[in-house]
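User: Second chain of the day. Same drill as before.
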Amino acid sequence: MASLSEVVAESIANITRTSVTKSDFEKSIYTNKVDFAHVRSEIQMLEKNDFALLRSDILRLNTETEKFRTRMVEDLRRVQSNVRLELSLEKGRIRDEQSAQELKIKEADSVIDTEVAVLRTQMETIQWELFKTLFPLFCAAGALFFSYLRFVK
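Assistant: Same format as last time:
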């Protein structure tokens, strides 16, 4: 029985050596709880910081997007006004060109009318000259012809 008591004593000594006391266990649990609470608070703090950074990044991107949109609207309006101005200038240039062409046409028309009037006057002058020249000639020829007829009869 002595050996049984020895074995039991040795087992108890082994168990007491390898086992943790209740105070050490409670101390370990408390330390773990404190460590977990500290880790949880650090994670929450990191999440809050990340969320704040994310929110500030989103706000910054929203403001940049709004600035870009307003700049694009301004550029679009500027381009539209430039196009309108160019179209207006082109219309004015075309009107000026058209009025210049109309003026040239009127000048050419007046030159043609003048030349036609000059030609008509020249034709009338030539016609009158021919009449002045040929009428006495025909009258003389007629008189000669009638005198010839008189002599022949």
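Residues 22-152 form the longest helix (131 residues).

User: Great, on to the next one.
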